[in-house]
């Protein structure tokens, strides 16, 4: 009988330890959640208030004779492997006196400009298309970087001749068999 009493006592002590740990864990979790909410509230209070929120849609389609996409040039190759910049920079202007001047003058121009840009660049989201051109007539002049020079890459020539349908290779141009 005494042995059974000690077993029950140890079981009760173990159960109390588990219960105490569960209570401690719950209190700790609640405290962390409360601290997280307080931190989020402080961050939101530090942000300037949003004055206006709106959606900008692409401008209407161009007329039948206008191109539906902007053509890429040879100089755009540099930016094909770089992710797009998603920043908008604002600069001080001496002639803007207050916020209402900005919202009445500059902000509508930003909206119109963004709508026009979305019309042209929305199809480029993840896809680059262009018209295939004659390789001989449109190929750029070969420079030392296109001819397999150290650090060069035949990727520029490859992208141009492929009609820009694929991203240029990052591998250096092959020098041919040694000899």
TrEMBL record:
It comes from Zea mays (Maize). It comes from the Eukaryota. InterPro entries: CAT-like_dom_sf, Plant_metabolite_acyltrans. Keywords: Acyltransferase, Transferase. GO terms for molecular function: acyltransferase activity, transferring groups other than amino-acyl groups. This is Uncharacterized protein. Residues 137-179 are annotated as: Disordered.
């Amino acid at each position: 009988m005494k042995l059974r009493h000690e077993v029950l006592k140890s079981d009760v002590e173990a159960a109390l330890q588990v219960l105490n740990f569960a209570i401690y864990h719950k209190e700790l979790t609640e405290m962390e959640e409360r601290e997280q909410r307080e931190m989020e509230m402080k961050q939101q209070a530090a942000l300037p208030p949003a004055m206006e929120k709106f959606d900008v849609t692409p401008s209407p389609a161009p007329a039948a004779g206008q191109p539906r996409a902007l053509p890429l040039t040879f100089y755009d190759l540099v930016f094909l492997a770089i992710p797009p910049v998603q920043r908008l920079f604002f600069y001080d202007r001496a002639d803007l006196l207050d916020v209402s001047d900005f919202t009445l003058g500059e902000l509508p121009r930003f909206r119109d400009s963004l709508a026009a840009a979305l019309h042209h660049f929305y199809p480029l989201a993840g896809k680059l298309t262009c018209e295939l051109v004659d390789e001989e007539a449109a190929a750029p002049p070969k420079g030392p970087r296109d001819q397999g020079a150290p650090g060069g890459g035949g990727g520029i020539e490859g992208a141009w001749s492929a009609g820009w349908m694929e991203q240029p290779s990052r591998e250096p141009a092959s020098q041919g068999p040694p000899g």
